[in-house]
Each structure stands twice: as structure tokens, then as C-alpha cells.
């Protein structure tokens, strides 16, 4: 049996450990979402629009057909050129984005520079599918 003085110390130590681990877990989740977004954008940067479409979330594939998505991505890249640089400006949690069912999402805003667009904005919405973050919406303006 724990003596009366030891129990509070153990209890407070465990509480502190839990409090310190919560931000770390959130950071891990955000890092995973960011990694998925960067992998997706690298695939687009390489001009492999079909692979990007199929690595996306089933929600992306329900929103538009492969042909439409690939055509739009190809046309956008021909107009703006390839993205040369991107910097994360904001990463936030969303639970009810427009046109998507309520759930947990990550929205990532990049400030980007393309061959024919000095200042562009890329917005990526990710959704967790089977434990993995996958892109369900992508736009560049």
C-alpha cells in the first residue's frame, strides 16, 4: 500500500506526464497530415496527376471523376507552371468543411511560387482514412 505522502506525488507526476504528451500527440497528427500533403503535392509537381488522384481520399474520388480531376490539374499546371517553392502558412483542424461530411480534417495553407505565378496560394484538405491522412481537396490560385 502506498503511504499517504507518496501517492499525491505519483498522482501529480502522472497528470504532468499526460499533459505533456497531449501537445506531442497533436504535433504528431499534424506532422503526419503535412507529410501526406507534401507527398501529394510532390506527385502533382512531377506532373503525375493520375497517381495524385488515386492516392487521394475516397472523398476526392467521389467529388469528381479521374478524367475531370486530371484534366483540371493538367490545365492549371500549364497555365501557372510548376510550383517551384511552397511554404506552410497555416495548418488547422476543421470538423465541418463545406461540401464534406462532418469529421476530423486538417486544412493546410501554403504560400507558393510557380513558374508563371509569383505568389500563389495552395489549399489542401486532408481526411483520415484507415488511420492515414489522405487529400480530399486541392486547389491552387
Automatic annotation (TrEMBL):
Span of the signal peptide: 1-26
Pfam families: DUF4019
InterPro entries associated with the record: DUF4019 (IPR025091)
Keywords: Signal
UniProt protein name: DUF4019 domain-containing protein
Source organism of this protein record: Malonomonas rubra DSM 5091
